[in-house]
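Re: the 218-residue chain
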Amino acid sequence: MLTEKQEEILEAVWSAGENERHSVGAVKKRCVIEFDAADLRELESKGLIVCNDDKILLTSDGNPQAEGIIRRHRLAEVMVSSILRLKAEDMKEVACKIEHGLLPEVEESICTLLGHPEICPDGKPIPKGKCCNKELRVVNNVVVSLSELKPSESGRITYIKPGSHSGLHQLIALGLNPGVQVTVHRDSPAFIIKFENTELALDKEIAKDIYVWKIGEN
């Protein structure tokens, strides 16, 4: 498993490589977080990149990993811009949060729902997935609103559709990030969920805007 930082570095290496730029400076310019030589050595030890003088190149193992990360990020950008309708200045930040928590099954469902988009909002190509090659048209109805789950049922958060962007930040601050597994403790008289050793009461209207990948009962 890669850390979010490692994923961000691989994403930046891929992005720089799209423009035939492979220098450390070019990669750092495209990376949303700072990294140093130790971070690069760790990725190199995993066999994902090769550092040669001032160049960073993806290996045969690192290339598909980076491609998958880029695909999830750009799909997330399409989703937040077309479905959640967030402003351009908010899109990058929210898409970055979402990409790290997308499960492969959810990724395919979102891609299918969006009609297998080929480019993201800023015109960059979206790498194709298995669902694109199969031209899937039906989305499995397993991504549901958190409010639809019954007590003891669980789901993994895929995305949040807040009434305002500030609302999204509040939920993320509470730890309700994409990828987090939540279990409904009870739905009456208050809607209460459990996640990561935390018990939280949510307004039912807020729960309606949290979408999860349903994973069955505990």
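The longest helix spans residues 62-82.
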